[in-house]
Design a protein that fits this description.
143 residues, mainly alpha, Arc Repressor Mutant, subunit A, 8 helices
Length: 143
Amino acid sequence: MSEDRERELTRFAAGGLLTAIPHWPLGQPGPQTAASARFARAETFLLEHATEQITVADIADAAGLSVRGLQAAFNRHHGITPLAYLRRIRLLLAREQLQSDSDASIAEIAREAGFAHLGRFAGAYRDEFGELTRRTKQIARGW
């Protein structure tokens, strides 16, 4: 994937997350503590590396947290695990591509978004958005 394309996908993911997942109200930053700074680093790392094959340990290392601390922080802030948060980012990236005028196949889109297993991608996509990937693509093309 080109560097420009990766930046574009990262910007899209960030925008989607800001609307889909609650954050501090605009103009009213939360209290900046060492813990909140580490959590912010974890979220930033996930956005910047969403299409790569990363582990919870990679995220924890980037944030300066233990794996257990990272999992507790994500559960506290978002009510999900770090990998579930990553999966949502990837699903948003894939949905954006499926809704675009891209000629890429569903398999190519899934791989570009960071999914290694196409069957799991299809199931997660259906669970998240309530429709099949091919239906999203059909709707985008006006079928």
